[in-house]
Predict the 3D structure of the following.
Amino acid sequence: MCLWFPGRSTRQDRQYIVKTFYSVFPDTTVWKGCYGRGLYIIGTLKEANINQSKTKLAFTNVRLTKDLSEYDKSCVTSSQLLELLFLQTDEQIEDFTRAALIITDNHPYTEFPLWRYLLNRRAGARVESPGR
């Protein structure tokens, strides 16, 4: 499963979303979007075991590199891709989401983020970019 969400979200929203996603998908990684455009959360029910050698092998696939470079030249090597890895280990994710709550239908903590962003912006609140 892959979920993207915009970078103009609060740290708290990012923590809630990651914790909720991680509660469903035990093997979760969080990636920064190219040029700081949001975050991608990728989760599986089985261990994906992302590592440098597997990533290098994937980038020997010409179809993959052609697809990746069609619209964006900033991520066309395995090292460029791995630089976007923000959270990978259980410890990193648990540390990042320690104080976060899990989003449910009864507790939609991240509901209407655009409105909260606009209201906070008018009030002078600081909205962080991803990765901070």
